[in-house]
Amino acid sequence: MSGQRTGEATRSPILITMLLALLTAVGPISTDMYLPAFPAMKASLGAQPGEVQLTLAAWFLGLSLGQITHGPLADSYGRRLPLLIGTIVYTLASVGCALADTMTHLSWWRLWAAVGAAASLVIPRAVIADVVKDGAEAARMVGRMVMVMGVVPVLAPTLGAVIAQHWNWRAIFWIAALYGLLCSALILRYLPETLRPHQHGRLRVGNTLVGYIIAWRGRSFRTHALEGGFGTFSLFSFLAGAPAVFLGHYRLDPTTFGAVFILNALGYIAGTQGNARLVARIGLDRAMTCGSLLLVAATTAMLVMAVGSLGGALGMALGMMVCMASLGLVLPGAALGSVLGHGGAAGAASALYGTTVFFIGALGTVLVGWTAPGNPVAMTTLMLAGAMAALICDRQRPR
């Protein structure tokens, strides 16, 4: 049966791509949809300044911890069962978020929701590595997947803003729970097992740790993971700082703030689609370098606008749109470069990559909360620091 399902996955790349996109979209839904509700959450739960950002840090920390767990499970028990269990945990924890009565409780439930949701981030990359062995074809598959899920970052913040204005912030987490329930049903019905039985490894903690150490010591893996991590640091610094900057400093209403993420999503879609063309024309390495350079240029421009009080909210949003386009060039290549060539251990390599990326990114959310939330200069300074670090890692990558 497993061999048959593997064959089905190979014969139906479009179906698998769409399903993986829906599963991977758990991350954007759970991150972007609740950002416009930060002021309402702060008022409802009596949060202190910067405390709301800790719920976002808890989310990213949970994604970091969860991925390093789901990877070995996916290599030992196949891709399907760990993905299903993780999605169920995410669904139940989202219900806990909806019922939370303090910011501390909300942060804890967000942590557990992220641990479950991490399965939908790490395992789909391993599924791609199972199904497609050619690097260029894998890049195209990732591009198609991102194109399908690109609509989620467009709709999620806008939907969250409408809910925050007309209902309440708790409804956002009820919707997230319903989405998790839908994903669980789709996994049960449509997702084939892509890891053949003879590729299943035995789950041993010692061997797993050795595998992580071996992967990390590989220069190609390490530089790809760090470049993706510092690029994500820039992104997460924006996500953590954006609600206070746009809703507080620039005085946007929640619905208009949600429109900022439409530009973000359009930029990311443009970047990923351009990435597929660039990879075919100049290769994966040069495409990633172009993305890293563009990220430095865009974050520098945003810092200049913040320091000089130029451009206003629109200028900052357009600058972030360019940042997202540059990340569309960097992140797919960083993820693929970290997992290709690991065979049956692709789940562990993908997990270590995800843990590295989200741990570094979580540091950005914490630093934003510590450095005067609502200050665009502090936010853009952190974004530029992450972009510069990503460029340094890019220069160290083996070609």
By CATH, the architecture is named Up-down Bundle
Oligomer: single chain
SSE order, one letter for each helix or strand:
HHHHHHHHHHHHHHHHHH
Gyration radius from CA atoms, angstroms:
20 Å
Question: What ranges have pLDDT less than 50 throughout 5 or more consecutive residues?
Answer: 1-11
Q: What helical percentage do the residues reach?
A: over 70%
CATH superfamily: MFS general substrate transporter like domains
Topology, please?
Blueprint: H1 2-11, H2 13-24, H3 26-32, H4 38-45, H5 51-77, H6 80-99, H7 103-117, H8 119-131, H9 135-149, H10 151-166, H11 169-190, H12 205-217, H13 219-249, H14 254-282, H15 284-308, H16 312-339, H17 346-370, H18 376-396
Task: Describe, in plain words, how this protein is organized in 3D.
The protein is an all-alpha fold and 399 residues long. It has one domain (2-396): MFS general substrate transporter like domains (Growth Hormone, Chain: A, Up-down Bundle), CATH 1.20.1250. It is built from 18 helices and no strands. α6 packs antiparallel against α7 and α9 (135-149) runs antiparallel to α14 (254-282). It is globular. It starts with a helix and ends with a helix. 60% of the residues are buried.
Q: Can I get a quick summary?
A:
The chain has 399 residues and is mainly alpha-helical.
